[in-house]
Amino acid sequence: MRRRRSDELPQFANEAEIPSFRLRRRHVYYLVGFLFVCWILYPSRNATPAPGTGDTIKVNWSNYAYSVYATDRGELCHAVMVLEALARFGSKADRVLFYPDHWDTKVDSSQDRDSQLLSLARDTYNAKLYPVKLLEVAGRSEINSMVDGWKWDESVTKFLAFGLEYYDRVIALESEITLLDSLDELFLLPHTPVAMPRAYWTDSKPWPLSTTLMVIEPSLDELEKFKKRMLEGGDPMLVEMHRFDMEIINERFEESALVLPHRPYALRTAEFRRHDHSDYLGGANETWDAEKVYKEGKIVQFSDRPLSSPMVMWSEESLRDMQPDCGGSHEGTCAERRIWKGLYDDFRKRRRDVCKLLSLPAPDWNKIKEEFRPATAMKPAIDASLNETAAAPSASDGPLLGN
Length: 403
Known about the structure:
One of its GO terms (molecular function) is transferase activity. By secondary structure, the protein is α/β, with parallel strands linked by helices. It has 13 helices and 16 strands. The longest helix is centred in the first third of the chain and has 21 residues, at 21-41. It has one domain: Spore Coat Polysaccharide Biosynthesis Protein SpsA, Chain A (Alpha-Beta Complex), CATH 3.90.550.10. The strands form five sheets. A seven-stranded mixed beta sheet has the order 5-4-3-8-11-10-12. Strands 9-14-13 form a three-stranded mixed beta sheet. The protein has a two-stranded antiparallel ribbon with strand order 1-2. Helix 2 (73-88) packs parallel to helix 3 (113-123) and helix 2 (73-88) packs across helix 11.
């Protein structure tokens, strides 16, 4: 019988020399499991970037809200304009509108603008409507021995935002502003009861907090403290100027608030009229660039006393007296003048397009100038009460009044 060659015989190997298939398969399972866990934990590409980092986090935007308020028809229109801007910039947070409880959303006629605007805010800009009893503070000054003069300020209604405790954080805004971008990043600030910019245009140091923009963690206890303080009344000058809200917010939070940079969160139209911009820029070393400042801004507050409101169609004379002077040149134009005029024109245009309301006719400019000059002389007394020079432009501002 022929003997088989060695290569024809069954091959038997030492098990210790054979790599284990089971071991390799187990490693594959480990690798697949690890990759699956990584896939589950990896942030969604739709997540919101964490502020100041390249990371992303998931945000439940229903925990946050913007709040605006209205005490009259003019303010209602301006509040709706803010809501329109938030929608246009794609803000993800809720929107809340406080308004007098004697208004309603039933449109009785084509002239019922209040109801129409409330419905517009609710149906088009997804605002949650809150009819409320307006907050107010009174200031009393003796006119003569027979008559007392009472002044009332309802701008303190903005503090109702402190009562929205079902939100983790609320951004309370004034209505007579122009938003240049979304403010959603402010909802993700570190934990703090209040975050606000300072009124950098004032003479006193430290600069007082400005109520144009308040990032708050709602608290009914804080709201009750504010209401109690309002019952005590206020300085009649501050009440008449609608500045009492700044006084009580500074009494409570001046030393403890998280301070937001006024650049870009507290730009004013008056800044484009000033000659010295070191306070806004943060120092004298940086060169003023009006276009750059405007582009980086997030919010612009209209503040050009004695111009009372951007909804007024001011006369050519008043604009000529108040516009940026372009370094002393009354002819031609410059970036400051273009931006300043553009902000007013844009406000009136949006008021017409959003609210279907025309600009108001301008009052007598010569009379305003005569009334404003004595008011300017009262500036030191006003500063002593509030440390706030918004009652009159400072000496570093541009032209105040024409001759």
